[in-house]
Each structure stands twice: as C-alpha cells, then as structure tokens.
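Subject: mismatched residue count in predicted assembly?

I count 380 residues in my input, but I want to confirm that the predicted structure covers every chain. Input:
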Amino acid sequence: MSASQATLLMGILSLPALLLQDNLLGIACQVLYVIFLAIGRGRKFRILPNLILLISVSSAHLLQPNGLHLVSLGGFSVTLGALLLGARKALTLMGLLYLSHFMVSGRPEFPGKLGKLVAMQFYYFEKITTGWRSIQPKRPFIGAIDRLMLLLEDSGSEPASISTKGSLRATTRVLITNAMHVLVLWSLFFAGYLGLLPAFG
Amino acid sequence: MTRLSDRHIPARVEFVALLAAFALFLSTVEYMIPKPVPFMRIGLANLPLIIGLGILSDREYFLLAVLKVFGQGLVTGTIFSYIILFSLAGTAASTLVMYVFYRFARRFISLLGVSIAGAMASNIAQLQLSRLILFGDAARLIAPPFLAVGLVTSILLGLFAESFVVKSQWYAKQKENRP
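Triage response: the counts match. Full output below for your records.
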C-alpha cells in the first residue's frame, strides 16, 4: 500500500465518525482536528468562506423554529434548537471538506480506466501550465489560448512522463500515524455519543 | 492529434483528456481573478464543454463532463466532500441541457443561448441540492441573486465561446477532424 492510499483509507474510515456525530462540541473538536491535519499537508485555511458557511447555514435553519425560544427580532423568533442544528450541520460540512483536502493531499491513484484517464488529464494539465508560461503575449486571451492549444498539438510523444510516478510505500510510521488519526476521530465520536462531552440545548 | 501516451487508450479519448485538462487550467485561471463575493464563479472551466459540443461525439462529450468534475475535485481537494455533489449536480444538469439544445435546436439557438441554458440548469440543480442538504426552504432566499449572477456570467462565457469558435485556428482544425 502506498502512503497516499493509506491516507485515503484513513479518510474513508473516518468519514462516518464525522457524519454520525450528534454532539456539537464533538463535531467542533473533530473539525479542528481535520483542519490541522489539512494545514499540516500544506492546505490553506481561510477564515472568511468558513465563517460565511457557518453563518449562512445556521441562519437558514432559524427559519424553522425549534426548541427553546431565545429572542425575537422583529417578529422573527430565534430558537436554540434551530441555531444548534444549523451550526452542527455547517460544522459537519466543514469537517468533510477539510478531511477531503487531507485525503487527496498525497494525490492518490485511482484504479481502472477512469484512474488512467484522470492521470492523463493531469499529465496534460502540467503540459498546459508549462506551455502557458512560454506563450507571449497573453493578450488577447483568445489568441493566447489558441496558440497554446496548437503548441500542444505539435508537441512530441513522451510516454514515460505519463506513467504514475511510483508512489512512496507506506512505512510503518505512516500507517501508525494514520491509524492514530482514525482513533482520535472515532474517540471524539464516542465521547459525544456516550455523553462524555457536554451537550448544548 | 499526435499520440502522446498509453497505447491502449484511443487518440480520441486522449483528446478528451486534453480538453478536460484545459478545463482544469481554466479553473485555475478563474481562481486568480478577483471576485466581489467569495462563492461567486464565472464558470470559465465550462468553456471546453461549450466548445466541445461542436468537436466531440456524444460519448466523448459526456466523458469530458465526468473528467472535468473528477479532475476539479482532485485539484481542489473536495472530491470526498459535499462540494463534489454540487459540482456533479451542476455539471450533469448543464451538460445534459446544453447537449439537448445544441443537438436538437441548433438552428434556433447560438452558443450564447446554449451557455445561458446550461448555466440556468446548473444553478437550478445546485439550488435544489442546497435546499436538500444546506439551507432547507431558505434556499429560495438565495435563488434570485444566485440566478442573476449565473445569467450574467453565462452571457459573458457564451460571448467568449462564440468569439473563440470564430477566431480559433485550433478549433477549426478540430472541427475538420471531427469523426
């Protein structure tokens, strides 16, 4: 098993722990954990899009009052149940997003014909990005794209470069680290499930 | 086109992979364009799907749509998240609608019209999905601005596609070679 496949497997095994999490604090901890995992693999974390997601999903749920009435804003009642449900949903989505970032950080190879085609797509993608740098001038844009595509047409055969670059084999350390991530995420799930974490609302 | 790789993959499929890579490239170009709202998308990556209508067979066209979604999911790291569902729903709806319009109503509709129809189909599919998994009934509140932005960006993209198919030598060459 390659290192990237081990990471992918870790993610697949951890997905249910996030999806089934019912405790708000539990999901918040899981989200923080996967965000750190993704950042550790060089992924960027931007506050604004996540904040917008959290606020928009939470406020959308306020339209369906549920549970303890907190406050009225111009005839519109803000309820605790709706607020918590929205927040939990938004956190789950954020968690899945960063777990996904982490899962594909090693650029895993996919099996079968589709996997081969995706590999070929990335091969051409690299050729396009390299070719684009050599295209001058870049304005007008249509002319530049046209020259780029014609350049790719004329490029020669390089069968070796499309082959998968021999992924690194997963060392025992990589396997143990990934197993630990699975364990942490499932422990947080069970901590929420068994009531070891405080429940709000 | 020149064969570049695996001998077991036909040249036409390679050509589809090239167009899918082109879609990836355009999505990175779009990423660099500053936008007033973080979630706003111009949809530049849909250009290969629009121009592909005139140079790909039916099978190749749908394969391109699948590769576009998977490739973008991998590049952005969203392939195992809810975002891939939005991407799949939007691309599936727009691909199907654009295909139907182009194949069966080509005499009455330009690429601009095809682009608008595709964007509307994509936006409606994504709104339905957001109603199901994100916002519930509140999705109707975001529908008007979402559709309005989609309309404007699809007009821009449609005009760009129209201009591209007229001016591009590469496109003319592919049109000649179309099976």
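Chain A touches chain B through 56 residues (CB under 8 Å). Marking this ticket as 'not a bug'.
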